Amino acid sequence: MNNKAKKPIKPIYIISDSVGGTGLKITSAVLAQFPNLQSSEIKRFPFVTESGQIEDILADAKVEQALIVSTLVNKELIAFINNFTKKIGLRHVDLMTPLTSCIEEQYQEKSLQEPGALHKLDSSYFNRVSAMEFAVRYDDGKDPKGFQKADIVILGVSRTSKTPLSMYLANLGYKVANLPIIPEARVPEELFKISPKRIIGLTTEASTLANIRQSRLASLGLKSSSLYSDRQRIQEELAYASDLFEQLGVLTINVENRSIEETAVLVEEYYRENFQLAFNHLI
Amino acid sequence: MNNKAKKPIKPIYIISDSVGGTGLKITSAVLAQFPNLQSSEIKRFPFVTESGQIEDILADAKVEQALIVSTLVNKELIAFINNFTKKIGLRHVDLMTPLTSCIEEQYQEKSLQEPGALHKLDSSYFNRVSAMEFAVRYDDGKDPKGFQKADIVILGVSRTSKTPLSMYLANLGYKVANLPIIPEARVPEELFKISPKRIIGLTTEASTLANIRQSRLASLGLKSSSLYSDRQRIQEELAYASDLFEQLGVLTINVENRSIEETAVLVEEYYRENFQLAFNHLI
C-alpha cells in the first residue's frame, strides 16, 4: 500500500441466510485487487431469511448507495433483491445462482432452497467441536496418549508453526496432536507405534527461524544472545529433526514462505490421499 | 438424507490461484441444496497461476466431464478457461469476475490481478498465528494474566463450547481467553479489572447441558449419575453464572441451537460495535 490519495468507495452490504463468511471472503479477496480504492466499509447481514428483513436492509442500502453482495439460496428472496435493486439503481452480485443454475440444468433437479443447510447442528458439527478440544488437549506434546487417537500428528522444532497449523486443521474437523522436537528430549515411544502416514514433519530455513526466535525473545523481554536463537544451535536442531523424520519415514513439509492455509492444504491432500477421504470434513 | 437411489453426478474441479477454500465452501453450500444428487467428487487445484497448469487440469476435466469452478484473479487465465471449456463442451462457473467487473465499472479502476494477495505473509498473518497461540495458552482459565491481554474473554459453565468458540475466533485473528465458571471456584480478580465490553458470558438450557454432559461422561467411561450431569446441580451452576454475568455487566449469549459460527458472528458484531473495528481481522 502507498500513501497516494485513494478513491473512496461506497459501502458493500453482504446479505446471507447463514453466517455470511463466504460472501465476506470473496468480497475481501476482490477488494484486495484494488489497492487504489479506499477500503470500503463492509456490512454483513447474517441469517436473513425473510423479505421483511431484506426491505429494511435495502432501505438503508439506498441511502448509502451500497453495493449488494448476496449468498442466499431462496430464489424468491434473490428475485426480490434483483427487482428492488434494479428499481432503485443499485448493483447486486448474486454469488450462489450461477453454480446452482448450472447444476439444476445439468441434472434436471431443483435445489432445496433451504438456508443454512451447511451449518446444521449435526454429527459433523459435533466432530468439529471435539476436534478443536482435542487439539488444545494434545498441543505441544502435553500427553503422548494423544498420538494414537489423532488423525494427524505434527512434529517440528520450536517456532515452525505447529500450534496454529494444528488449530487451523482442527477447525476443519481433523483431530490433531503436535510435538515439539528438541534434541535433548527423548521422543515418546508412542510415536513409533502409529502409522507414519499420520505424521507430518515441519521444517524451515535456519536463518528465518533465527529471526523469528529473536523477535519472540524480544517480545518476551529477553536478550537475543540466547542459545534459543543461535544460528549454529538452530541448524543442529533442524538436522536432528530431519534425521528423526527420515527414521520415522514421514512426509516433511518446508513451511518457509508458506502461510498456515497453504501448509494445511498440503497436509490435507496427503491425509486424504492416504486415507481416501472426501472433503466432507471441511464443512 | 434418505436411502432412495441418488443420481450420480460428475466431479467438480475447483481451480484457485490461492488455497481454494472459498470455492470449496460455495460449492459445498450449493451441493447441500441437492440432496437427491449423489455427493460428487470435489477436486481442488490450489495455487494455479500458469496456463500450463490449467491445460493439464482441463485435459483431465475433459476425460471426467467435470464441472469447473474457478476463483482466479488473472483475466487471461479466466479467458483461457472460458475458451477451452466452451470448445470441449464443459461448464465453467467463475466466482470472481461478477464482483470484480462491478467494482471496475463503478470506479473506473483496473484490478491488480495479483494472485493470493490475501494470503501474503504480512503482519496481519502473523497476528493471526499469535492469536491462535494466545488462545491455547489462555484456554480454560489456565493463566488469569491472559484476561488483560485478551481482545475477548469468554465465560461459561462446563460444556458451553468455550474452547471451540475461542479457537474459531482466534482463527479469525482475535486474541481470546476463556474461563470455566464453577460455583465452588472463586472468579479471578483480574476479571473485574477489564472492560465488561470485552467479556462475553455463554449460557444454555439446563436440559441440553445435562444431555451433553451425560454423553461426555459416557465417552470417558464414567457412570452418568455423577453430580456433573445432575439436572438440579446444572440449574444451580447456570444460575450462579447468570448472577456473575449480571454483576460484571456483560453481554450474555444463549448458545442453545447455535453453531459455533453463529455464536462467533454475535461475538464479533458486539466486539466491532464496541471497538469500532473493520473486518480486516478476518482475512
From TrEMBL, chains A, B:
<keyword id="KW-0670">Pyruvate</keyword>
<dbReference type="GO" id="GO:0004674">
    <property type="term" value="F:protein serine/threonine kinase activity"/>
</dbReference>
<dbReference type="Pfam" id="PF03618">
    <property type="entry name" value="Kinase-PPPase"/>
</dbReference>
<keyword id="KW-0418">Kinase</keyword>
<keyword id="KW-0808">Transferase</keyword>
<keyword id="KW-0547">Nucleotide-binding</keyword>
<comment type="similarity">
    <text>Belongs to the pyruvate, phosphate/water dikinase regulatory protein family. PDRP subfamily.</text>
</comment>
<dbReference type="GO" id="GO:0043531">
    <property type="term" value="F:ADP binding"/>
</dbReference>
<protein>
    <recommendedName>
        <fullName>Putative pyruvate, phosphate dikinase regulatory protein</fullName>
        <ecNumber>2.7.11.32</ecNumber>
        <ecNumber>2.7.4.27</ecNumber>
    </recommendedName>
</protein>
<comment type="function">
    <text>Bifunctional serine/threonine kinase and phosphorylase involved in the regulation of the pyruvate, phosphate dikinase (PPDK) by catalyzing its phosphorylation/dephosphorylation.</text>
</comment>
<feature type="binding site">
    <location>
        <begin position="156"/>
        <end position="163"/>
    </location>
    <ligand>
        <name>ADP</name>
    </ligand>
</feature>
<dbReference type="GO" id="GO:0005524">
    <property type="term" value="F:ATP binding"/>
</dbReference>
<keyword id="KW-0723">Serine/threonine-protein kinase</keyword>
<dbReference type="InterPro" id="IPR005177">
    <property type="entry name" value="Kinase-pyrophosphorylase"/>
</dbReference>
<dbReference type="GO" id="GO:0016776">
    <property type="term" value="F:phosphotransferase activity, phosphate group as acceptor"/>
</dbReference>
<dbReference type="InterPro" id="IPR026565">
    <property type="entry name" value="PPDK_reg"/>
</dbReference>
